[in-house]
């Protein structure tokens, strides 16, 4: 009986790549498996556009339009948002993988000069950076900022929504950038 029990536990354990308590390294490993859109949070630093790549963002509610973004509390981006209580969330297109990498480098200069749409080219005013080639930009007021562990959770009350002609989103998962594939097209090709 004991041998059967041990074999059962071993067989079940073989199904799992990871079995852990709430360790930060285990959590990071598993969260990297999630495929999601990539965004750049835009702020103003020394009156110049500044950006930081993020993947932890989500809509909160439709009425009023509100979103949530999580930012490392030690970054200048977090300090900018806490100071000005304004930020933009730019959802990146596939054409912006290089910009995403640039804005993801810890400690690097992340000024966005040359990447933003000039104010006089925008159809409506925006108080924060709007990136060229983004699939959408949300200009937000930070209505609530809360520190949780190493990060700040920022609730953004959306002031302006800008979305140009539809572009393919930039995706990230399993430690790399990914391209989108329409599943209806993929399954049609498989059955042909």
In CATH, the architecture is Roll
What is CATH's topology name? Pnp Oxidase, Chain A
Mean pLDDT: 89
Structural class: alpha+beta
How many DSSP H or I helices?
A: 5
End-to-end Cα distance, whole Å, is 52 Å
Q: What is the chain-wise order of helices and strands?
A: HHEEEEEHEHEEEEH
Rg (CA only): 20 Å
What composes the largest sheet? 7 strands, antiparallel
> Beta-sheet strand percentage?
25-35%
Please give the share of residues in helix.
Answer: 10-25%
Indicate the overall shape.
globular
- Based on DSSP secondary structure assignment, what is the total number of beta strands? 10
Poorly predicted segments: 1-7
User: How many domains in all?
Assistant: 1
Q: Which oligomeric form is depicted?
A: single chain
Strands side by side in the biggest sheet: 3-2-6-7-8-5-4
Name the CATH superfamily classification: Electron Transport, Fmn-binding Protein, Chain A
| CATH class type | Mainly Beta
3D architecture notes:
With 192 residues, the protein is α+β, with helices and mostly antiparallel strands. It has one domain: Electron Transport, Fmn-binding Protein, Chain A (Pnp Oxidase, Chain A), CATH 2.30.110. Helices cover 24% and strands 34% of the residues. The protein is built from five helices and ten strands. It has helices spanning 2-14, 24-31, 76-84, 97-103, 183-191; strands at residues 36-37, 39-45, 48-54, 57-61, 66-72, 86-91, 136-148, 151-162, 171-173, 176-178. A seven-stranded antiparallel β-sheet has the order 3-2-6-7-8-5-4. A three-stranded antiparallel β-sheet has the order 1-9-10, with no helix packed on it. The chain is globular and about 60 Å long. The protein starts with a helix and ends with a helix. This is Flavin reductase family protein. It comes from Bradyrhizobium brasilense. Keywords: Oxidoreductase.
């Amino acid at each position: 009986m004991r041998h059967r029990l041990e074999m059962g536990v071993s067989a079940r354990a073989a199904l799992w790549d990871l079995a852990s308590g709430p360790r930060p390294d285990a959590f990071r490993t598993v969260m990297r498996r999630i495929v999601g859109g990539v965004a750049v949070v835009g702020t103003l630093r020394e009156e110049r556009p500044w950006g930081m790549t993020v993947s932890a963002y989500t809509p909160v509610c439709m009425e009023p339009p509100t979103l949530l973004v999580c930012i490392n509390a030690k970054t200048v981006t977090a300090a900018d948002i806490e100071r000005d209580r304004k930020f933009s969330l730019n959802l990146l297109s596939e054409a912006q993988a290089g910009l995403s990498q640039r804005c993801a480098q810890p400690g690097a200069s992340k000024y966005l000069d040359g990447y933003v749409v000039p104010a006089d080219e925008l159809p409506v005013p925006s108080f924060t950076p709007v990136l060229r080639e983004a699939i959408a930009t949300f200009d937000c007021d930070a209505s609530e900022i809360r520190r949780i562990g190493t990060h700040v959770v920022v609730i953004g009350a959306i002031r302006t929504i800008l979305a140009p002609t539809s572009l393919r989103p930039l995706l990230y998962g399993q430690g790399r950038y990914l391209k989108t594939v329409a599943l209806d097209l993929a399954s049609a090709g498989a059955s042909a």
